């Protein structure tokens, strides 16, 4: 796996809602806004599954996902791609559930969507648009 740089980690911390993109095994895309997220470490992103339906179904069929970091307070724009899995039990799921419930105990916490970062691309317009960063 690859590790996010300090600048990318800072961008992640400054992003409140991010779009999460997945696709079915047939390539039907889905994108959904995610707000219950946590950067577990420089190569692992946690997103709590509270209401995911198409996203969870897509990951079961096609374990790839993509997000981008861009917006107010973010320097640059990063498209992050990774290998994804959905957990509904186990140590990581319980740790994440506790972490997110500290902020909002009313969340259903049906599962934990885990993305292991595999690639990061530049997504700002210009000569380097689409350039692989790591």
From TrEMBL:
Residues 5-122 form the Pyridoxamine 5'-phosphate oxidase N-terminal domain. It holds the Pfam family PNPOx_N. InterPro entries: Pyridox_Oxase_N, Split_barrel_FMN-bd. This is Pyridoxamine 5'-phosphate oxidase-related FMN-binding protein. It comes from Methanoplanus limicola DSM 2279.
